[in-house]
Amino acid sequence: MTFHILVTAARLEQAGLALLQAAGCTVDFVSLEGGRAEMEHKLATTPVQGVISRAIPITGEAMAACPTLRVISRAAVGYDLIDVAGASARGIPVLTAVGANAQSVAEYSLGLILAVARNIPHHDRLTQAGGWDRSRLGIELYGRRLGLVGYGRIAQNLARMALAIGMKVSAYSPNLARRGDISPVSAAPSLHALLAQSDVVSLHAPMNPQNRGMIGAAELALLGKEAILVNTGRGGLIDEAALAEVLRAGRIYGAGLDVLSTEPPPPGGNPLVGCPNTLLSPHMGAATTVARSATAQAATIHALAVLRGEALPSDACVNPEALGR
Fold first, then answer.
1. CATH of domain 4-100+289-322
2. What top-tier enzyme class does this entry carry (predicted)?
3. Residue-wise pLDDT tens digits, 285-302
4. Which of 138, 167, 212, 290 has a CB 3.0–4.6 Å from the CB of 162, allowing a cystine?
5. Residue 74 known to be catalytic
């Protein structure tokens, strides 16, 4: 049996596309210009069985308009763009490419930490402009304490790299107790305990209603004057207005943020733009050729597995209650 697959992007890396072609699938794409409207039109007018999802939100209403839809497979790890409750109500499994981009995002997280700690963007701007200011000193990371909020594969990879440069690493996650001993990383008993003991904090928690705004004014007040906050998870994890106030007041050393609550930020609409010692980037943590290829391949394998009734990796499905319905 062949399947009709809709990719919510203008292209899919060859590692995934070749698998779909080998399976005899009809593969459809959403143009950059057409975006969400084009995707929703195709769902409503074509017999799509599977969606390979990239950067376009998919609502429950869009799913309902496509009665043939059986699976949504993310070529990514986050799933906040998908109405998971709406998918579950219709028996549609939502899958993620868990682990496929972990190394790339972990490396980017470490890059942000280093860039902020050593003021690299500041030095580059001044030198490119003809200056030669060597008065601004940075922070050495050796011996400092890294706190990981969330301890999935990205955080675990970052922990290994941080340990290699001599940092002390702790982690907090509500599910961490089930993992048992995670040494040489230590487990913090609570988020506040982790923040109070950390020199560098890196966010890797999923975006869900419980985690929205988890780093607010009270949490930021626990950080020291030389603390660095890095976020390669989701922008909504941070109260951006509270963080901007702390940065402008110089109450922490700096921040490196690859994700924002609204992407891209509207003109004049994000308080973090222009904050001192703040490095912003346009959600590039997973943007390597290796990670893009790996997520495309994983998303395709997962989608075909569901459509064929085959087994999935145990942690690939966000809503396992929808499997087999």
1. 3.40.50.720
2. oxidoreductase
3. 999 999 999 999 999 999
4. 167
5. no
